[in-house]
Design a protein that fits this description.
mainly alpha; 2 strands; 167 residues; 4 helices; single chain
């Protein structure tokens, strides 16, 4: 971090950790919404919240990006790796829930979540999305793990304030 030891705005920090909780809830409740009872319902709820928070985070990024801490010591390669990882993580926040919805819509004529019907896809798909959704979700979770590892490397090895800026 720069000498000012800036932190991210509190609302951005909240959105970051809330998103992680929703992602973990979706991942660990991964059960077929059709056959999984309450775990399937929880999976759909958590996935929906991940999707909603994707848009909230985009808004917060645009609104507060000028207040984000700057890392002055980052090399060009580190900066490119950071930007690429951020792109992959945000793509996962969008793509995994979308693929889940498409999977559910392609297998069920209608799906009820606590008595409310979820929006149906405007087209019918013959593609077997049932294998793609969990595959992309597992890749996404691996990227999240690498992201967390990088934060720990910053904290324990590089001994900078990158991790502290998100709490």
């Amino acid at each position: 971090m720069t000498a000012s030891n800036k932190k991210f705005p509190q609302v951005v920090i909240f959105a970051h950790w809330a998103t992680l909780l929703f992602v973990l809830a979706a991942y660990f409740s991964s059960q077929s919404p059709i056959e999984g009872g309450w775990r399937g319902q929880m999976h759909v709820i958590a996935g929906s919240l991940v999707f909603i928070f994707f848009f909230i985070r985009i808004f917060l990024y645009m609104r507060f990006k000028d207040q984000f801490p700057e890392v002055s010591f980052m090399s060009g390669m580190q900066k490119r790796a950071f930007q690429l990882m951020k792109l992959f993580l945000y793509t996962g926040l969008f793509a995994v829930p979308l693929l889940g919805w498409l999977t559910l819509s392609s297998t069920e004529a209608s799906f009820s979540l606590f008595g409310m019907g979820l929006p149906e896809v405007l087209f019918s798909s013959n593609a077997d999305l049932g294998d793609i959704h969990p595959l992309i979700a597992n890749i996404f979770m691996t990227l999240i793990g690498l992201h967390a590892l990088a934060a720990l490397i910053h904290h324990f090895i590089l001994k900078d304030d990158v991790l502290k800026s998100m709490r």
